[in-house]
Amino acid sequence: MTTNPIDAAASTAAAPTTSTTTTSPTTSTTAGAATAPRPLPPRRAGFALATMFLGSFSLVTAEFLPPGVLTPVALDLEVSEGVVGLSVSVTALTALLTALGLGALFPRTDRRTLLVVLALGAVVSNVLVAVAPSIGVLMAARLLLGAALGGYWSMSLVIATQLVPADRVGRAMMVVNAGTTVATVAGVPLGVILSAAAGWRVVFVAAAVVTVVTAVAMRVALPPVAPTPGIGWSATGRALRSPGVGLGLVAIVAVIGGHFAGYTYVRPALSLLPGSDVGTIAVLLALFGVGGLVGNFAIGALVDRHLSVLLLTVPVAIGAGVAAVGLSAAVPLLVYPAVVVWGAAFGGVLNVVQVWITRMMPGQVEAGSGLVVAAFQTAIILGSAVGGLGVDSVGVGWTYLVAAVAAVAGGVLVRSTLSRRYSDGVAPV
């Protein structure tokens, strides 16, 4: 296989460089770098990563339960499906703000303690949703969940670097990210089934119970995690001014926004299939999740060497899947391969974006990570909001086609940032 010149150059530039180090029994300090803690023993690190997997699973399941129970929630609270879909948007709003500002608000707080507190906040959120008498209470509860989500994702990469050696951080994040895809494989489809059997409110009670287990597990398994240098608004501003980063973040918003404009309203879309019922929808959502799980590992294994190719092909696959699902009412056989392709592409897109930001900002990964989380949350807000307006005004089909175009256009733009980076004479290292 011929390696793309940009990827080859990036791989070469990514090789470790010689630096002056001073070591002690517990730390290694590199010129210009922060003191790095000793990684955990492998078995303990594996247990700690398992709890972070559980954290991403429980939080993402709670985040995206509304699309799976959209119709019954709307009927129970006497609002439109588009309005209920906005519960994903309000969650993302506080997640965005938390991702950017949590480190600055608590610059000295042990990150393990912060994660446990945020998980307990998610528990309260799920309980409030379960007993919500109105859409207003539900929306307020989802704001609290957003704070937990934003804090969790903005710190996950930093925490992973303190659990494992530097050459295993990518594998560690693959484990953490797998919780997201397993949430779509098991969490959301099981939520649909449980909702049909016992009601949507029971689904959120179950989510609260899982999140309690998560909070306890993280408190037991994670070591104390000290804050890292280079956090706060000034570091974020410097990161945003890096060549190509601003354009790339806009492109990411387009790709992820296109996904969520479709996925937030996937139940109404799948309900248009001839003969569709709750069982059919649960199967299709499970297929989406299986595709996501495969995509997470397959794309994660390829992205280090083939970033430039995947920056384009993954968004195009998302767009193709969204468009095919939007057209599936007219061509029902399209929907089964479409949800698998869509799920696989979305399952791997986070790995692609994480590698992209490390190539674009090798010396400011923590600040870059916060910007990526903020871009994702912005995309969720805009995608679910625009999708809701589209579903309520022009219908599912047209909404899905516009979402597909946005995803493909974003892929073209984000791919161009690597070329711009190299044309400016800056090679990611």
From TrEMBL:
GO molecular function: transmembrane transporter activity
Transmembrane segments: 45-65, 85-106, 113-133, 139-160, 172-196, 202-222, 243-266, 278-302, 309-329, 335-357, 369-391, 397-414
Keyword tags: Cell membrane, Membrane, Transmembrane, Transmembrane helix
InterPro entries linked to this entry: MFS (IPR011701), MFS_dom (IPR020846), MFS_Efflux_Transporters (IPR050189), MFS_trans_sf (IPR036259)
Low complexity bias (residue ranges): 8-40
Taxonomic superkingdom: Bacteria
Record GO cellular component, one term: plasma membrane
Keyword check for Cell cycle: no
Name by which UniProt lists this protein: Major Facilitator Superfamily protein
Organism: Krasilnikoviella flava
